[in-house]
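Worked example (supplementary).
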Amino acid sequence: MGIDWTGQIGQFEATQVRYGDDPLPGQAAFRYQPGGRPVLISAPHGACHWRGNDWKFQDGFTAALAHVLASHTGAHALYTVRRIRPDPNYDDDCDYKRTLAKLLQDHSIRLVLDLHGARYDRSFGVALGTIDGRSCPAYEAGLIQAFMDQGFDPDQAYFLDRLAVNLPQYRGGALQRTVTRFVWEQCRVNAAQIELNAHLRIIPGHNANSLTFTPDPQRQRRAIEALINIVKAI
Ligand SMILES: [Zn+2]
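After joint prediction of all chains, the assembly is encoded as:
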C-alpha cells in the first residue's frame, strides 16, 4: 500500500480551499508553505480568478496538489485558496508574483512547477509548457523523462496516457504573461507549466459536484509519482 494521495488531496481541498469566497480581511488570497528544497510548486488558479472583466473558474484540486506534493518532498509551495484578483497567470502587476519573486530570491529556488488544470475532454493527460523550450532549459529533458517513466508519452494512443509538450495553447506563456514566463524572463529561474486533465485531477465528493466524466485515480497516482520524482531529483 502506498500513500493515500486522493484522500490527502481531497481532504485539503474540502477543508482549506474556497473557490468563490473573498480572502479574509487582512489576508492574501494565496498561501505560502515553506520548504527546504530549491523547488517551488505554484498553483495560481487554485480558486476563482479575475481576468478581463469576469471571474474565471478554478483549476480544481491544484492548490491541494501543490500542498500535498510540497509536504511529501520538502519543496516550497505557493497556491491560491480564495478567489484572487487579478489573475496571477495573466497580469504581472499582482501580489502573487511579487511574493513569488521574493521567495525565489530568498530561497535560491532553481525550478518552479506551475500547476494548472485542463478540461476533461482535452486530448492529453498531461501537458507540459516551456514556451517552446525557452523557460526550462536545464530541466525540460528530465521533466519529460519523469512523465515517460510513469507511462505518459507523446506517442500514446489513449488520450489520458498522452504527454503533450508545448502544444499550441498550452505552451506556458508564448502569448500570455503567465507565471512560467514571469519566472523565467524576470527572475531568470527555470519554470514549466504543467496542465493536468480533469480525469487526473478531480476527486469526487470533495468540492466536486456532479461530474460529466469518470475520474481516473490510477493515472492520477502515476502523474503524482512523476511530479514527486521531478522534485526529488532537483
Ligand atoms: Zn490555470
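Two points are worth noting when inspecting this output. The longest strand covers residues 111-118. The first helix runs from residue 5 to 16.
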